[in-house]
Structures are given as C-alpha cells and as structure tokens.
Write a structure and sequence with these properties.
alpha/beta, 6-stranded parallel β-sheet, 7 helices, single chain
C-alpha cells in the first residue's frame, strides 16, 4: 500500500518524540506508564507504551480528550483538573499495586508542557521510578531535588528522536 508523504509528517515530531522518550525510559512489558498530558505527544506515548506491553494510565485536565482516548484501550484514565497531587498519586500508585507492579516499574512521562502537571509528574516518583520530561514550558517548577536521592529515582529529559530510529518507529 502506498502512503502519502504528508500523512507521515507526524512521525518526524510527535510520534518519534514519544518513541524516543519511551525507549530512553527503559520501559518493558509489565511496567506501568503514567502519562501526564494526553494530547499529541502524550497520546502517542501512551499508544507506544501499550504496544510494548505496559499498563497505561493517561492523565489530563480535559474530560473530552480522555473520552477520545478511551477507545484506544488504555488501562486507566484520570482527570486531574482541580485535584491535589497527593490524591492523584494515591489513586495512580494504587492502580499499579492492584496490577502487581513494583515501583521500580513506574515510568512517568510528563507530556503536558505545563508547570502544574510537571509538578504532578514529579510527585508520582517512587522508589526506583523513572521520570521522563517530554513537555516544554518556560514556567519555573519548584521541586525538592532530594526526592531523586531519597527514592533512588531517575529523571531524564527527552528531546526529539534521532532519524536512525525512524524505521523502527514506522514498523511499530
């Protein structure tokens, strides 16, 4: 089947960026992916994580966006609008525990590009967890960096994707 080149343009940004973040996180089948921000990159991040065998949790402030993602078969969606980060953490970590996933398998993807959601993503850290910052905002975020040490957690930034990975992205 032939594919029009312009229909593949999303690969060079939103899809490949999501792919690179998932790969760099070390996500494996049986992990849980907490995606904060279910828009473009976040939606693709969730689909890639699901395709690789992870439980997927998508968080967003827009109920209509979450409803639109429901047919994709994610394991849990969470509307975070107006909620306290600690309450959300309890809900999401509770889901992971229900699924029998230890915190070492928590992969957190911040894709919202907003300071409040970057703070929420950081709040989700747990022992041995990995957080990927994929979204960009110019706003400052106030976090306690010592949490990285206390949780023996990992925090990575992820920007785009090397073109060498595009064939794997297209196969996926």
């Amino acid at each position: 089947a032939s594919v029009k080149t312009d229909s593949l343009s999303v690969v060079a940004d939103a899809v490949s960026t999501a792919y690179q973040a998932v790969k760099r996180s070390g996500l494996a089948a049986g992990d849980v992916a907490f995606i904060i921000g279910g828009g473009g990159v976040g939606g693709f991040t969730a689909q890639i994580a699901k395709a690789l065998g992870a439980k997927t949790v998508v968080c967003d402030v827009h109920e209509e966006r979450l409803a639109g993602l429901t047919p994709l078969g994610f394991d849990h969606t969470c509307n975070v609008k107006g909620r306290e980060a600690k309450e959300i953490k309890k809900e999401l970590h509770g889901k992971a525990k229900e699924w029998g996933i230890p915190s070492l398998g928590y992969k957190i993807f911040e894709c919202s590009s907003t300071a409040p959601c970057q703070t929420l993503a950081y709040t989700l850290l747990a022992h041995g967890a990995t957080m990927m910052v994929v979204g960009f905002t110019r706003d400052a975020v106030n976090v306690r960096l010592s949490n990285l040490m206390a949780f023996d957690a990992t925090l990575h930034g992820s920007w785009g994707c090397p073109v060498e990975a595009y064939p794997a992205v297209l196969r996926l």
